[in-house]
């Protein structure tokens, strides 16, 4: 009899982590590797945030904290929601976890029963379905294809809702596509949700500050106040403030739900790192001017990568509204053979051959629920992106 649980058998390891790990191994072995798999800003955490962490250490703020966040951070989160999203929360409605992933997982563990369904638009972040499965729920995938700019329609959402639906999981701008829902597009979805009061909304707003051109970010409870009492609004400091390793995510919602999430966290990890929490206070309360600077940098990189990929034979790359990903379609490459002799049967074969033959690491589309595509993270230098696009162009030109 295996020692492993049946619950674990329902999930698979993260493909994005697997790609990043293999790229690192090849690089350590002497290969010239350009990694475009990790969703992590390549610039340093701002100095005021680092200084706050050092000050916290020197002040001895290195002990256990309340399970789901120090009062100062919860207050800062409430202030942020009011300032940027026109949402009013009290500290009792806020939960702080070890990254946004834990916050999402806590919510699922606190609410899902066997048979409960969670609607997840695809392409999706790789962890969403597996977190639902691990918590005992059933993912219901609603696929948005390139012809709708990777965004689901109100009709698709309506058709997916059943009496068993517990959550609608919403991510805009999206990982992996960068697609962002406008106010009107989101309003159309919330109108559907208002007709189904048994459906709760979990919104992953992690890329809120990474939006481009004239796109304006909005979140469901902001667009439709009638959903406030059945919405968990999730965010964090990792992407906007370049604090991926600090591991601080947070959410706000109804007190009953937040209390249940606290119970889950109290019996799993307990409190997030005390030092990281004080650093997050500085991030949320401190200067925000560099967000615009970083946004302009990412927009320039987006334009560079979109142009470079659209110059590739067999690839079509839409222009995303936000985040730091593109999700090109490779339909024109399927069925061909690479210069190295690999038959491109699907996007996983494409990504494998691309890494083996050119040293460019991307994540294949099947990991995100939509093929044939791959995801590129352009959170790296212009030089690396330019070279990577040149290698991908050469790889595609060699397909026959």
TrEMBL record:
InterPro entries: Aminotransferase_I/II_large, AspAT/PAT-like, NHTrfase_class1_PyrdxlP-BS, PyrdxlP-dep_Trfase, PyrdxlP-dep_Trfase_major, PyrdxlP-dep_Trfase_small. GO terms for biological process: amino acid metabolic process. Its EC number is 2.6.1.-. Homodimer. Keywords: Aminotransferase, Pyridoxal phosphate, Transferase. It comes from the Bacteria. This is Aminotransferase. Residues 32-392 form the Aminotransferase class I/classII large domain. Its cofactor is pyridoxal 5'-phosphate. It is an enzyme of class 2 (transferase). The keyword Isomerase does not apply. It catalyses: L-aspartate + 2-oxoglutarate = oxaloacetate + L-glutamate. Belongs to the class-I pyridoxal-phosphate-dependent aminotransferase family. GO terms for molecular function: L-aspartate:2-oxoglutarate aminotransferase activity; pyridoxal phosphate binding.
